[in-house]
Amino acid sequence: MTTIAVLPGDGIGPEVTAATIELLEAFVPGRLIFEEHAFGGCSIDLHGTALTDEVLAACRASDSVLLGAVGGPKWDTTDPAKPRPEQGLLGLRKELGLYANLRPVKAYASLLDSSPLKHEVVEGTDMLVVRELTGGIYFGEKTRTATEASDDCRYTVAEVERIARVAFGAAKKLVTSVDKANVLETSRLWREVVRRVHEEEFPHLELEHLLVDSTAMRLVTNPRHFEVVVTENMFGDILSDEASVITGSLGLMPSASLGAGDTPGVFEPVHGSAPDIAGLGIANPLAMFLSAALMLRHGLGWESEALALESAVDRALAEGLRTRDLGGTVGTALATQAVLAQL
Ligand code: NAD
Ligand code: IPM
Ligand code: MN
Q1: Secondary structure (3-state) at 79
Q2: On the chain, which terminus has fewer CB atoms closer than 10 Å, C or N?
Q3: pLDDT (mean) for 157-173
Q4: Residues lining ligand 3 (ion), CB within 5 A?
Q5: Domains 1-98+259-343 and 116-247 agree in fold
Q6: Cα(270) to centroid of ligand 3, in Å?
Q7: Which atom of ligand 1 is nearest to the CA of 287?
Q8: Where is the Isopropylmalate dehydrogenase-like domain (predicted)?
Q9: In this structure, which topology does domain 116-247 adopt according to CATH?
Q10: Are 70 and 40 within 8 A, CB to CB?
Q11: In this structure, which ligand is nearest to the CA of 277?
Q12: Helix 303-318 × helix 332-342 angle, to 10°
């Protein structure tokens, strides 16, 4: 039996997670066991910490982890001594060794006019952002005194090598490595290592190096240029939210976080807990449905089911499914029915 650890989290997290479980139970009935756990802000309320040892152990023992989103104003604090929901997410990624975060960005033919970018700019975009997920400034030492604060940014050669291999392995033609090598020492190491992995292991592919500032500009002026974009943790976080405007909404962006060997992956939308719309039943569940498709593909190896789910989302959009974030009026429940009707 295949066990999925389900971490709904906070805000719209539980709303899009419930919709996804409803969808999966109808789509692959009896094939998945869902085990739900408190995580993020709601775990802080219950246990004083965003990720308990029990929940971490349950995730480790599962076949895959399906995660909604965490965080919200209730737990927002600038006090370093207070627990934050986001610590649960970072702890889970680190503890499971999920160094590779895949964030596909696709322009749906039926949504070309939903993007604030021009139709002809976004048309045909199909890229994969490969974000390094367990290193860099997110995980370096942090200090804080009354007059000063610091966040340490570190990368080892081995960390860069393994994420570079994921990126080259996913590319057919072009890998764009994004850094800030004109300023940062970690970026200079990054660039050297990516270049060497390219020369030694993937010479048949094309590699280009771009600086992160100009990449931010090129992503929205010529997104079609990109195939696989590989970058460090924080740049990948920022660039992937930016890239979501190509698709039309953050509510369409899925992600897969993968580790080595048979470590269970974590599958979650790129978006957060959206406190501004939480509880209204209007969250777009498609990012989470597409994350579930990534789980079927990368987590469970169910490629044909993954393709069927992705194609159902595609067809539902083609038939006019539009949630609020895409300029429509359809809520979470009806959006779920619209995709189910295509399966
Ligand atoms: P957000 O991604 O939650 O929301 C940004 C904007 O996009 C909001 O206007 C929101 O309404 C909209 N949006 C996001 N997802 C949507 C969806 N599925 N359907 C419709 N609209 C959607 O970012 P934020 O507001 O900056 O962050 C809110 C909280 O979420 C913070 O506490 C942050 O730390 C947390 N966060 C968590 C994750 C995660 O759990 N993976 C990711 C990002 C942010
Ligand atoms: C994401 C989120 C997280 C990140 C936060 C909530 C810690 O923004 O998954 O993109 O920065 O990685
Ligand atoms: Mn983010």
Answers
A1: coil
A2: N
A3: 98
A4: 237
A5: yes
A6: 6
A7: 18
A8: 3-339
A9: Isopropylmalate Dehydrogenase (3.40.718)
A10: yes
A11: 1
A12: 120
For the segment 175-183, the average pLDDT, to the nearest whole number, is 98
Closest by CA to 129, choosing from 221, 17, 247, is 247
Could you tell me if the CB of 256 is within 6 A of ligand 2?
Answer: no
- Residues 243-279: tens digit of each pLDDT: 999 999 999 999 999 999 999 999 999 999 999 999 9
Name the closest-CA residue to atom 22, ligand 1.
251
Q: Is the distance from CB of 76 to CB of 279 less than 8 angstroms?
A: no
pLDDT of residue 163 exceeding 90: yes
Active site positions, annotated: 138, 180, 213, 237, 241
Alpha-carbon distance of 118 to 107, in angstroms, equals 12
Residues 6+ apart with CB under 8 A from 262: none
Domain ranges (residues) in the chain: 1-98+259-343, 116-247
For the CA of 324, the closest atom of ligand 1 is 20
Residue 34 phi, psi dihedral angles, 5° rounding? -100, 125
- For 1-98+259-343, give the CATH class: alpha beta
Residue 254, ligand 1, Cβ within 6 A? no
Cβ–ligand 2 distance for 241 under 6 Å, the answer: no
Read off the DSSP letter of residue 212. H
CA torsion sign for 130, 136, 138, 139 is positive
Of 295, 298, 290, 283, whose CA–CA distance to 316 is shortest? 290
Predicted TM-score (pTM) of this structure:
0.98
**Residue 29 CA, ligand 2 centroid: distance in Å:** 32
